[in-house]
């Protein structure tokens, strides 16, 4: 039986853009990332939208209906 939703860890992912070091142009990232991950990978960056909340460990995908 899965855990109640308020006990599941929550993953907060942000859309962001970063400044490319070679050209100096702003580039919109093609993926969402946690704030700590963005800070670790990019020197000059900014968040450009609302965060997306995902629950971790909520189960796995199955293409078959379980009933």
What distinguishing features does this structure have?
two-stranded antiparallel ribbon; 3-stranded antiparallel beta sheet; 1 helix; 67 residues; mainly beta
Structural class of the secondary elements?
mainly beta
Strand count, sense and closure of the main sheet? Answer: 3 strands, antiparallel
The H-and-E topology, N to C, reads as EEEHEE
Q: Provide the residue-averaged pLDDT.
A: 87
Rg over CA atoms, rounded to whole Å, is 17 Å
Helix content: 10-25%
Structure description:
By secondary structure, the protein is mainly β. It has one domain (7-55). The protein contains 1 helix and 5 strands, in the order βββαββ. The protein has a 3-stranded antiparallel sheet with strand order 3-2-4, with no helix packed on it. A two-stranded antiparallel sheet has the order 1-5. A hairpin with a 6-residue loop joins strand 2 and strand 3. The longest helix is centred in the middle third of the chain and has 7 residues, at 35-41.
């Amino acid at each position: 039986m899965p855990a109640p939703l308020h006990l599941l860890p929550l993953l907060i992912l942000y859309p962001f853009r970063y400044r490319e070091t070679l050209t100096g142009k702003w580039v919109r990232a093609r993926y969402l990332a946690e704030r700590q991950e963005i800070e670790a990978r990019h020197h000059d960056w900014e968040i450009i939208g609302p965060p997306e909340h995902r629950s971790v460990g909520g189960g796995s995908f199955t293409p078959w209906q379980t009933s």
